[in-house]
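User: My instructor asked us to take a sequence, write out its structure as tokens, and then describe one feature of it. I'm not sure where to start. Here is the sequence I was given:
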Amino acid sequence: MFEVEAEQIKIELAVKQGGETHRLTHNLRQPTTSEWKEYDRRQATTGRHMKITAHIIDSREWLYNKLVKSVEGYTCKGQDIMDVTDWQAKVPVLHKSEVISRLGEIEDIEPGEELKNG
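Assistant: Let's start with the prediction itself. The structure tokens for your sequence are:
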């Protein structure tokens, strides 16, 4: 069953660097309704494409920084990123943006696809 009050959400990214694919896990808490509303408000934009893109990335980074509890798979100067004081600032902004874009994702299900239910 899908737990609607799960305390933690895990979102994984597969990112290529130096010819290798790295699995990066982002552990988030559930957003509140007011956080979702503020996120939507921050995404409301007008103007040229570059300005719109900047607003979307800024709003996603804002929400990510509110929700993220920990990450796995990142290093900073050879040490686990979680051991770095300002670790949130070290997570690439495009990774933050992708995580938030996946947070509200609802996927289409193919007929006959195996699903996980209670």
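For the description part of your assignment, you could build on this observation: Residues 9-103 form a domain with the rbstp2171 fold (CATH 3.30.2220). Try explaining in your own words what that tells you about the chain.
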